[in-house]
Amino acid sequence: MDDNLIQVTVIDRDGTENTMEVPTDINISLMEILKASEYEILATCGGMALCATCHVEVVEGLDTLTSASDQELDMLDTLPDADDQSRLACQLYLNNNNNGMKIKIKGALQ
Q1: Does residue 26 sit in helix, strand or coil?
Q2: Is the model's pTM score more than 0.85?
Q3: Long-range contacts of 10-16 (CB under 8 A, 24+ apart)
Q4: How far apart are CA 90 and CA 81, in angstroms?
Q5: Residue-by-residue pLDDT tens, the chain, 110 positions
Q6: HEC secondary structure over 63-95
Q7: In this predicted structure, what is the pLDDT of residue 107?
Q8: What's the rounded Cα separation, in Å, for the pair 53 and 108?
Q9: In terms of DSSP bridges, do strands 5-11 and 102-105 run parallel, antiparallel, or are they unpaired?
Q10: CB–CB of 70/80 below 8 Å?
Q11: What are phi and psi of 88, to 5 degrees?
Q12: Which of 26, 47, 72, 92 might form a disulfide with 30, Cβ 3.0–4.6 angstroms?
């Protein structure tokens, strides 16, 4: 595998699981990667951590991510279904340490 490619498994809202290769040498968020891969992510605020429509549950690999900012945590606190494994995909920039991560899409569709 290329040094700048990792594998991330995505569980869609309907339970469908797909593993995709994600480049780590470009500076785009997981939200942008999911949207480019045609997953239904509203991202109403455009990635500013202001709407939580890119809410994901990190099923595996939470310990490989950077800590959530206060702004991200404040936004997650507004969600009824958020828990300790919840993150906003717009705030996640992946690197080689995230290889094998598994996420479940949870954000609102309206």
Answers
A1: coil
A2: yes
A3: 10/34, 10/37, 10/39, 10/102, 10/103, 10/104, 10/105, 11/59, 11/102, 11/103, 11/104, 11/105, 12/39, 12/105, 13/40, 13/105, 13/106, 13/109
A4: 18
A5: 578 999 999 999 999 999 999 999 999 999 999 999 999 999 999 999 999 999 999 999 999 999 999 999 999 999 999 999 999 999 999 999 999 999 999 988 87
A6: HHCCCCCHHHHHHHCCCCCCCCCEEEHHHCCCC
A7: 87
A8: 5
A9: parallel
A10: no
A11: -100, 125
A12: 92
What is the distance of C-alpha 62 from the center of its chain? 11
Write out the two tokens for 18. Answer: 């797909």
List the structure tokens of 104.
């479940």
Largest CA distance in the chain: 39
Q: Which of 71, 56, 68 is nearest to 12 (CA)?
A: 56
